[in-house]
Amino acid sequence: MKSKEISNFLQTRIEAKDFPSAVYLVAEKGEIIFQDALGFAVVEPEKIEAELDTIYDLASLTKPLVTGLLCAKLIEQGGLKLTDKLKSQLRQFLSSIKPEITIENLLTHTSSFPAWRPFYLNCHDDKWKNEFVLAQIVESTPKTSPNSKVIYSDFNFIVLGFLLERCYGNRLDEIAENVIFKLLELQNTFFNPPKDLQKRIAASEKGNGYEKRMCADSGFDVSNYKWREYQIWGEVHDGNCYFMNGVSGHAGLFSNAFEVFKIAQQFLAEETTLLKPETCELFRTNFTRGLNEARSISFQLAETKDSTASAALSKDSFGHLGFTGTSLWIEPETRRVFILLTNRTHARDLPFANINSTRRRFHEIAAQILDRGRK
Description:
alpha+beta, 10 strands
């Protein structure tokens, strides 16, 4: 059942050209209350309407839905501890002069690694891409000591992806398939979607214009790299993840709203089937109290100033955003799940729309409707 109020609001944002399509899902206590699909998932090179089962490039939602969940599973099983030093888990960091970065630092973005770097610009050996990326991260110098500040960084979850591969002895996409996707019976969730599903996938940016500009603005030489000039559709938008063959701990996951919901349930103590209920406390606990941002394990908390959760969600609600226009927020006390999937990078001239105010309003409207229903 759709919510006329939510759908009408999102339709106004489509008409304002914030994004060409939106699929939302709002659930409470394991039951889907509202869902709808609006707009066009693909505008170019052809027009395809968004459907409830349209698959989106989830971008950084990969961090909690795959990497964070797998790390929590390892912590639960005793194969990993939050206090473990990074150098004790990955030998590449043994000779590093870095301060004592821990697994908790990576999961809460308190390692002080830089936010981003275009690894793909400097690698000239396709056979050793991942080794090159890890070596570049090892050589990166944190700006400050761990635990002094939250610096949201893709580096943290790229490293965690490598760590998971070492712990499980398998590629990250295969680990996710065996430990998460198969057990939850997911049929539309994967890294590197099959080519025959392209017309069910929301399209992204045409070419690499955004990252090319960002690289140039950061002082990198962009003249010798073979940038994607075609319509990105059915392959990952993120440049580093694309360089890493579509599989990374920080990006690369594709899914639809319903299957995102099935994974989201694994973070709720009353609904999880993959974790012990007590493990779910990791996702609502503030590990960065006193710092510039409230962070739990792999999530931001609504306690963070100007969080996209909005004031309508409780302070221990936890969520994450994806650059392509996706978001997930979970309110543990009420067991409410708010999913909004858009493709804001498609069919739009730069700059892309900042949709954080849209995300906040979506949560406000949805929470108000749910609250009215409880009275």
